[in-house]
Specification:
It is a single chain. This protein is of the alpha+beta class. It is 49% helix and 19% strand. The strands form four sheets. The protein has a six-stranded antiparallel beta sheet with strand order 3-2-1-6-5-4. It has a six-stranded antiparallel beta sheet with strand order 14-13-12-17-16-15. α1 runs antiparallel to α2, α2 runs antiparallel to α6 and α11 runs parallel beside α15.
Length: 645
Amino acid sequence: MSEDRVILDVGAYQSLMGELETLKGRVAELELAAKLEPGRVAKQKALFAVVTKIRESLDLDMIFKSTATEVRQLLNSDRVGIFRFYPDSGYDDGEFVSEDVLPEFDSAKDIQVHDRCFGEQYAPDYQAGKVRVVADIYRAGLSDCHIAILSQFKVRANLIVPLIKGSELWGLLCIHQCRGPRDWQEDEIEFVSQIAVHLGIAIQQAELLEKAEKRSTALQTTLEYQLRKRTEELVQEAERERAISRTIDKIRQTLDLNVIFQTAATEVRKLLNIDRITIYQFRDDYFGDFIFESESDEWPKLVGSGWEDPYLNEHQGGRFTRGETFVADDIYNANQSECHIEALEYFGVKSCAVVAIFKGEKLWGLMSAFQHREARHWEEKEIKLLNQIATHLGVALQQSDYLEQIQSQAKQQEKAADQERTLARVIERIRQTLNIDQIFSATTQEVRQILNCDRVAVYRFFPDWSGEFVSESVAEGWIPLVTEKIKTVWQDDYLQRTEGGRYRDREVFAVDDIYKVGHSQCHIEVLEQIQVKAYCVAPVLVGEKLWGLLAAYQNSGPRHWEAGEVSLLAQIGSQLGVAMHQAELLDRTKKQSWELRTTLADLNAIVDNLADGLLVTDIQGKITRFNPALRDMFGLQELNLRVKK
């Protein structure tokens, strides 16, 4: 027997040929999968590139233009357009606000489109998120009016995906094929659908930003107007009151009420040459307190004396609520009650003049001039001066309140601006990486700093709806929930029983005081274990699935969570969900690619180590692969073997 030949019986030969056919089929399958996989990876990369461009800007015109261009080139279509419905048109009217189209086809941009059939026949499906795939408009059962609209733009096949802003149908992402019919592939439909989702988010974010900027501009305009108007009023008052004494000038030199009251009391006493001037402030029950006084000698102090006036209490300010003045040249000849005279005698008062101080329309208090040494006749100009000073004190009170309001508004504006900057910074950090640990760490740190709270943490649900804290930023002095070795597990019966509860419905839950919100005792005990007194929790959803929670905690005491803070936490929780979804997609793609390469390498090793000779041909019969055993079996050179058929 020749050493170059192998003799097999018929059964062994048929068995070997069967195994060979099986291996050839498997190899063909693997080679086909290997060819297809780079295409899927390329589409994922293309999707990621388009989404990245969408998220790099809040300029809708730029987003629309770059998206239309990228999608048209990637799908090799004739036109890609962004169509927006006119508000209140019932989805029958709109226009293409952006497009990318081949030169040989007319532009559809800025052309007003009216389709009387669309709002009734098609809008509800698009509102529900339905994608419309038409390979040939003349064979898709479209209404005549709709075909007429499409024919206007020479459309033969189209792929239409709704653009949803929140829960509202904002417009359509339109892919047009004008040269002829086209069968749209599943991966193309999926690609365009994902682009539409991110466009919807971009539209919503851009409109939210625009509204915030308009609110800020309107508030700033209002504030400037109020300041300008008030300044003009003050200037006019200053011009009218230029002849008033230096007492009023000194009052107007400051907005510090303590300085104003003390200055008024001291200067008026000196100006009128009387024994005592007092400032009296009413409480809500129209009893009151002497809060400032200036006296010439060592008379008994009225400030801190606890003097109560039953008449003013009973009559809720009495004559003073009407702006009347009380003047007594001699307390014994002023028809005063015996108890009132006794109170005046106790403080050595012989004569008095009392005027009302109003803050706006409300009686705020009284300014009183007391003469102790003897009775005194109060001249009209003295009473007028007292009323003028009281009027300016009322203005000063209003100015002080107004200043507090302005300062409060300024602080709120500054805080809102800080929150907007923090949100933008957090979103930017999230975009810079797909490393979830880095995203969580940066996000919790940024949010804790802007909210100035004691702890911000990310909580992940387990399949049984219990969960653990996976990342946190915590201020010094509080027990950490997450360390390098420990992640705190929290068993929440409510969340387990309701499978995420309110958070599944995207609700944000804010509690100002855990002891005043109706929590069960066991829930309070769990919160006390992690030192919580107040908290605000936002859901983190990956797609439509509740993945976990983003929580801000106040441990030092109760806290009122402002609407802007709650909104900020909700937006950042939403961004975390998007980041998680993107990271999962990337991880899944990498895993599939690795598994395919491993399987192919294993099969190649098996083939190369077979003792029997093996060769593989393509469908044209050309040899594409052989193993060393076959080459050795026939003693052929590799080059000669590869060209044989």
